[in-house]
Amino acid sequence: MKINGFVFLVLGLFVAIVSKLAGEKLVVFLYFGILLSLFGILKLVLQQFESKRAGPQQIAQQTLQPNHYVSRQGKVTKQEQFYVHFCPRCGYPIHHQDNYCARCGTRIR
Question: Do 71 and 36 belong together in one domain?
């Protein structure tokens, strides 16, 4: 299970603020909260970097689960029977009846 960087950031800020308000007795927790917040920020930055590096096909494959389909509007549903294929040029999800990619215009058939 992956924990979002935002959770680390909020938790770290909470620990740092509470320990600062409690006084000098909890200075260790202040530093721990600051480190936890910095870790959360680092994790958020790395997530943004990885999502920019990943192509549309990789992102779609990560978000789609087995037995899920993409409707014509691009929403993931279970009811519609459009299996997902991807454009060979840009990786955009296309449907079996499409002749051209909706994003880049590449001829599919």
Answer: no
